[in-house]
Write a structure and sequence with these properties.
Ku70, Chain: A, Domain 2, 7-stranded mixed barrel
């Protein structure tokens, strides 16, 4: 099915406007699980309850409100969100262009595809080409779903992609190990050299298709097993937790050496298979 655009407006930089439409660039594969009553397995619904009357409230009567004093609210409609800053709600305003490598990974959030609206194809191609040639990304802000977003616009195979970013005040301080500055935990030069060798041995070209959600697949397999065994109304016991290896009993050099040996064995096993695949090709 064709996607519906999530947002329509224009990219603004200088005196240039690029009319665009925004589409999702990702999707979730979370299992659609329901809350059930363990006594009779009846679905447990989500109720919107009026805290004064104790009665259920229909969606048509629900509005958003800001509590400016205890128990006192200002109601906000969709028009209020849109007209708080009409220009901000209709444009993606580019403030600067920067190197993508200068933006730390912790800032990145959600990707979206940007497509030109009718009549905007040429100026869209102009912006995509300029970003591609300069090898930079555009830093911008826009408003969607009642809140402002920081974002970058980056070229992607001749098209444009928008990736939302977190604001600086949304980033928490890094959590550092308590003994980070202790000499006892500082690796030796030989250990660092061995670790670098292991990194080199395990280096490979990024191929996202090699990765998939194995946990979800295993959980679905477990669900199918329970269905086949007619265990549809039985709550199973939690599995025993596997014992975790303790870091203080591991000889770091031995672990690195054994890791390299294991990698070498895996490579030797994979070589004949790769040769057969090349021969078939």
């Amino acid at each position: 099915m064709a996607q519906r655009s999530l947002w329509r407006g224009a990219i603004s930089f200088g005196l240039i406007y690029v009319p665009i439409e925004m589409y999702s660039a990702s999707k979730e594969h979370a299992l659609n699980l329901h809350f059930l009553d363990s006594r009779d397995f009846a679905p447990v619904g989500y109720e919107r309850i009026n805290k004064t009357t104790g009665k259920s409230v229909d969606w048509q009567h629900i509005v958003k409100g800001y509590e400016f004093e205890k128990g006192q609210y200002v109601a906000l409609s969709d028009a209020d969100f849109k007209h708080a800053n009409l220009k901000a709600s209709e444009t993606i305003d580019i403030s600067s262009f920067t190197e993508a490598a200068d933006i730390a990974p912790v800032y990145y959030q959600t990707p979206y595809y940007l497509q030109p609206s009718k009549g905007g194809e040429k100026v869209y191609a102009l912006l995509a080409g300029a970003l591609q040639a300069s090898r930079k990304v555009a830093v911008a802000t826009f408003v969607m779903r009642g809140r402002q977003h920081l974002c970058v616009i980056t070229p992607a195979a001749g098209s444009l992609m928008l990736i939302t970013l977190r604001f600086a005040d949304e980033i928490l301080p890094a959590v550092k190990p308590a003994a980070a500055n202790s000499k006892s935990v500082k690796p030796k030069e030989a250990e660092i050299a061995m670790a670098r060798k292991l990194v080199e041995e395990m280096s490979a070209k990024w191929n996202p298709r090699e990765f998939h959600d194995t946990y979800r697949e295993d959980l679905m397999r477990r669900i199918r097993e329970k269905i086949q065994k007619n265990e549809t109304h039985v709550l199973g016991a939690e599995p025993r937790k596997a014992a975790r290896p303790k870091a203080d009993v591991i000889d770091l050099m031995d672990a690195l050496k054994n890791s390299l040996k294991l990698k070498a064995k895996q490579a030797s096993r994979a070589a004949p298979k790769a040769a057969r695949e090349r021969k078939r090709a």
